[in-house]
Amino acid sequence: MIRKALIFSAIVAASAAGAQESASGDRAQPSGDAAQMVTATMLEEASIVSLEGQYDEGVWQAGDPLTSMIADLTEIGQVENVVLNTAGQMQGLTTDVGGFLGIGTKQVLIPLEDIRLTRPDAESDEITIITRLNEQQLTDLSEFQIGE
Question: In angstroms, rounded to a whole number, what is the distance separating the alpha carbons of residues 131 and 114?
């Protein structure tokens, strides 16, 4: 069953990639500066931290740098998975929450709108993921399981 799901995912991904070709047969290239790109490896090694307490919702929504908001951060954990839909669009990140010493933990999906990525500087490969959800809100999320 898993093999069929993987094959189906590969077919859907290939179809989506083929749909991006222009009439001339050229493939669409990502736009933007490479320094603004993030790789799966960078995310794999990223820590997830939470804004606890009050924060400026306007700064979060505007996409402005979070430097004025990062005084009260609580470490949540590490990225477990990057979740994409079948169109290849990122939906969010999963992490383990709750429990103690790995016992009683559950994996939850942090939606894309609730995360921001930060770097110490443009040349750094170090990524920190900031979520506006606090520890209790993360623990209250439903457990995320692939294939349900």
Answer: 5
Distance CA 32, CA 134 (A): 32
Q: 35, 120 in Cβ contact below 8 A?
A: no
The Cα 124–Cα 97 span in angstroms is 27
Domain ranges of the chain: 31-140
3-state secondary structure of 54: coil
- Put simply, whether the predicted model's pTM sits higher than 0.70 gets the answer no
Say if residues 37 and 30 touch (Cβ distance below 8 Å): yes
At 17-42, the pLDDT tens digits run 444 444 445 666 556 666 677 888 88
Cβ neighbours of residue 109 closer than 8 Å, sequence gap 6 or more: 83, 91, 92, 93, 94, 141, 144
CATH 2.30.30.240 matches 31-140: yes
